[in-house]
Amino acid sequence: MVAKISAGKSLFGALAYNQQKVDDGKAKVLEANLVCEPADGKFSIRGVTNDFNRWIPSHFRTKNPVFHVSLNPHPDDKLTNEQLAEIGHEYMDKLGYGNQPYLIFKHEDIDREHIHIVSLRVKSDGSKVKDSKEHERSKAITIELERKYNLIPSKGQNQGELWMLSPVDASKGNL
User: Fold this and answer.
1) Dihedral angle sign, alpha carbons of residues 14, 30, 90, 153
2) Could you give the dihedral angle defined by the CA atoms of residues 80, 81, 84 and 90, in that order, rounded to the nearest 10 degrees?
3) What DSSP string describes 57-96?
4) What is the mean pLDDT of the chain?
5) So what's the architecture of 2-172 in CATH?
6) Integer Cα distance of 55 and 67 in angstroms
7) Alpha-carbon distance 173 to 175, whole Å?
8) For residue 115, which of 106, 103, 127 has the smallest C-alpha distance?
9) What is this structure's pTM?
10) Which of 33, 18, 1, 3 is nearest to 136 (CA)?
11) The dihedral of CA 144, 100, 108, 84: what is its sign?
12) What is the pLDDT at residue 158?
């Protein structure tokens, strides 16, 4: 499973991106953590943004308060919505976002199903969620989840021989 983490300033932008996929029928909300779920089950950008904003204190120093991650299992891994939601919850808890509001979206817009999770990097007291070595911790968590759920392990990106440097010979004009 490959995790792609991004931090941003626009909560509305992260939510709108995912909500647009939902509106186009290419995604659905699987789970909500500490976010009010509408009685009809249909989330709106305005309602969710307002709910998230209740968690954000008036003063904080976090430059990029929005957390957005996509978790991408191998295309041959077939997971139920319940399993994807459980993986999302476990991932967020282990990464330190378990007590934060977040939404888990399942995307079906490409060949493989994957999930996106939108949360906040700033706690309700104004402090920042610990993000030290976040990418390294994330990789360890995805490896642990692959083992637990018997998923096909992701292969690291390998640049291979094409990226190897070769000496320059000015006489051959290969500058």
Assistant:
1) negative
2) -120
3) -S----S--EEEEEEE--TT----HHHHHHHHHHHHHHHT
4) 89
5) 2-Layer Sandwich (3.30)
6) 14
7) 6
8) 106
9) 0.86
10) 3
11) positive
12) 44
